[in-house]
Amino acid sequence: MGSFSSDIQVRFRDIDAMGHVNNAVYATYVEQARTEYFAEVLEEGLDAVPSVLASLELSYERPVLLEESVTVEITVPEMGRSSLPMKYEVLADGERAATAKSVQVFLDPETETPFPIPERFRERIAEFEGLEDAAGGQAH
């Protein structure tokens, strides 16, 4: 998995009383990687992408320790009309520590209601991920 990857620095403050990264911090790692994905693939900062996080699901497989290096890998398996599902693997020293799924929903900036993913974003994601475009052909 992982057409996009982001290296995350584990900070001392991420560690809980059990001596490993607190479960809630994984959501922050995924968020950081998603922000970097948008910046690289969409060539826009998250503040310029009219979307909100609609759902986030995390599954933990093993603890992450302070001294480990963390990488979050992201793939976009498909695109909906206004929704963008994303899948993540959180790797610690190259070993899977967690998986996650999220859905971003694009919103009309004025009405704040679901809005089709802008064509320029759809094209960039399709090309980066190797997805078929809306016309049914392979993205160029």
From TrEMBL:
Keywords: Hydrolase. InterPro entries: 4-hydroxybenzoyl-CoA_TE, HotDog_dom_sf. One of its GO terms (molecular function) is 1,4-dihydroxy-2-naphthoyl-CoA thioesterase activity. SUPFAM superfamilies: Thioesterase/thiol ester dehydrase-isomerase. Its EC number is 3.1.2.28. The keyword Hydrolase applies. It comes from Halalkalicoccus paucihalophilus. Pfam families: 4HBT_2. Coiled coil: none annotated. Belongs to the 4-hydroxybenzoyl-CoA thioesterase family. This is 1,4-dihydroxy-2-naphthoyl-CoA hydrolase.
